[in-house]
Structures are given as C-alpha cells and as structure tokens.
Specification:
metal-binding; about 375 residues; mainly alpha; metal ion binding; 14 helices; two-stranded antiparallel ribbon
C-alpha cells in the first residue's frame, strides 16, 4: 500500500510540474485550439494527454519498481500489458491532435484569391499562388502570431478502428479478462468463449476509448468525469483485492487531478484526443485486468446516453455552445443532441454545466459502488 501511495504522489507531482512546460512547447509547435466559449476566444494548447501520459507512466513504473525491490507480490505482466495498451492509444490520440486538414486550408483560404500579372511588375514583387498558399498554411500551423483559428481535422473512423486494434493486443496476449460472466442477482453463468477476446474486448475497447471524447465540450468536463470514474474503479478494485487494476485506475486519477488544475474553468490547456483516448484505454485496461467488467460497464451510463444522443445527429452535433452576454451558454441546435444541451437550455454557465454533469456521475458511481458491494 505504501508503494501505491508513493507512486500516486509521484504521478500527481510530475504532471503538476510538467504541464506548464508542455503548454509552452505545444504553443510553440502550433498545437493549439481556440476556446470558442470565451469572449476573447483565447488560443489554448491542446494535447494535454502528453503530460498526463508522462505522469501515468512514471506512476505505474515506479510502483512496479518499488514492489520488485521490496519483494511485494505483484503481477508485473498485467501491468506492463496495460501500460503498453495505454501508450499505443495515447500515440493515436496525439496523431489525431496534430492532424491538419491542409487541403481544406488551401480550398478555404485561396477560394477568393485571384492571380493577376502586371507585365510591368518585377518578378520579385509578384505573389504567386504557391506563395499565397504557403503563407495561409503558415498562419494556420502557428508560425504566425496573427492566427485566429485552427483547421484541425481528426482521423476518420476507419483509420481509428485499425489503429485501435494493435493497442488491444497486449491485453489479449496476457489473457486479461474473464471469458465467463455471472448474471447479476442469479446463479447463472455465461461462458463467452472466443466471443470475449474476438468480439467483446475489441468492441468494448473501441467504445470506451471514444466514450470519454464523446462527452466533452466545456472546460474540465472530460477531466472531471474521468477523475470520478477512475476513482470509483480504483476504490472498487481495492475493496476486492484487485491491486493491479487499482494501480492503473488510481494512477489515472492522480494524474488527471493534477491536470485538472490547468483544465478546469477557465482552462489554460485543453485535453485533446491524446488525453481522452488515454483515459478511456486506462479505464478499460484496469477493468479488464481486474476482472471487474460488470462494475466497470455500469459506470458508463452517462456515456451511453451521450452516444445515443449524438447518434441522432449522426455524430455531427456539437456539445459546446455559444457564449451569451450574461455568461450563459446557448445550444447550437434546436434539438437535444448532447447531455450539455438541456443544461444550456436552462441557462447554465460553462462552469455550472461541468459541475452538474460531474455531480451526476459522482452520485451514480457511489450508487453503483453500493449496489455491486452490498447487493450483488
């Protein structure tokens, strides 16, 4: 337990210290986005998963080192498999964060550009089309301080699915998870057989890694929900002596808590897909290696609701709103396509929306802890 506590402190401290440096690096590299829900529309560095990943790796590997040195019993194989999966999926998230739609930039920025040639003009004074395009791209990629917006376009669903599969293989290779599952409140047990590693695990992994990204849109929303959910998984794992699962879940909690200092309203850094993918993968890995799939699945009620709401719009709706003069947010859509929309319709501010949804998730996690501990 001391090793776990020390590793969590190390993970929290490393993220807390490293994040300001990551912010400067990402801004200088042109990896930033525009906070659309602020009056000044500030440029904020994205890809907050980078410092969180650093702290997460530090926390988990320190725990493994301490348990090895002290001779404490620990399943290093499971921890390494979970860590490998998280690293792979975080890399995919980073690629998603830095992907720029160059063709879209060229089409948008040069659509109204006319090229005229004055025969009396010196060649050196002519702005050729390729020079115009280069200047436009330089602005968007952050090489100019006058940039007003970013044209970042995430990977399409097919590449995501293909890239996600290798991240799952380490967990399958070590035999993580249970092929049998008992039905709650009954004595009946389902033996999934090969359906578990070939269908259920890939489907669950793909959903969970994207679920954290689906329910976002306000400062601190994805991070607070991740903090609450991972803490619940960690506590349940400890209560059931699933220490490896607790290490993964609580390491995510500690590093997310440190990052929340910079992502909570008003945010100075955005999480990006590198964080949301990382968080989803860590949650999935902790649940699977701890064989607590039923409990883990029960915590994702809000995410499932958000999924079906977004599906109504064919995943084209935005969770974030339009800032009003009184500080409240107004939904961009007439219909409800996100859990944030009914709160916006009630005149909630950005901070209040985050706290409300995080509070609902906290209550639900406590209820599920009680149900799976006392009832099942």
């Amino acid at each position: 337990m001391i090793a776990l506590l020390l590793s969590l402190i190390a993970g929290f401290t490393s993220v807390y210290i490293a994040t300001p440096y990551a912010k400067k690096y990402l801004l200088a590299s042109g990896i930033y986005g525009i906070d659309q829900q602020k009056e000044t529309r500030p440029k904020l560095p994205t890809s907050g998963g980078l410092p969180v990943l650093f702290g997460f790796i530090f926390s988990v590997t320190l725990y493994m080192a301490l348990t090895t040195v002290t001779g404490t019993d620990s399943d290093i194989t499971m921890l390494l498999a979970a860590l490998t999966s998280v690293n792979i999926i975080a890399l995919i998230g980073l690629i998603d964060d830095i992907h720029i739609d160059i063709e879209g930039i060229i089409r948008e920025e040069t659509a109204d550009t006319e090229f005229t040639l004055d025969l009396g003009q010196k060649v050196a004074e002519i702005d050729f089309p390729h020079q115009v395009i280069h200047e436009k791209i330089s602005v968007v990629t952050g090489q100019s301080e006058t940039s007003e917006d970013m044209h970042r376009e995430g990977l399409s669903q097919v590449p995501k699915m293909l890239f996600v599969l290798p991240a799952l293989l380490p967990l399958i290779a070590v035999g993580a998870g249970s092929w049998t599952m008992s039905v709650p409140l009954t004595s009946y047990t389902v033996n999934w057989g090969l359906i578990y590693p070939l269908v259920l695990m890939p489907g669950g992994f793909f959903f969970v890694t994207n679920a954290v990204n689906i329910l976002a849109g306000t400062n601190g929303l994805s991070t607070t929900l991740t903090l609450v959910t991972s803490a619940a998984v960690g506590v349940f794992a400890l209560m059931n002596n699933r220490f490896e699962a607790a290490v993964i879940a609580l390491s995510l909690s500690a590093t997310t808590l440190a990052f929340l200092r910079y992502n909570y309203y008003p945010a100075s850094m955005l999480p990006g897909d590198s964080f949301t993918y990382l968080a989803g993968a860590a949650l999935f890995a902790s649940v699977v290696i701890g064989n607590i799939e039923q409990f883990g699945a029960s915590l994702f009620l809000l995410y499932v609701i958000e999924f079906f709401l977004k599906a109504r719009s064919r995943f084209k709706a935005h969770s974030w709103g339009i800032l009003q003069e009184d500080g409240t947010l107004k939904s961009q859509h007439d219909k409800i396509y996100s859990l944030t929309h009914p709160l916006m319709n009630r005149g909630f501010t950005e901070r209040r929306i985050t706290l409300t949804l995080a509070g609902i998730q906290l209550v639900w996690c406590v209820l599920m802890l009680g149900f799976h501990t006392l009832v099942i």
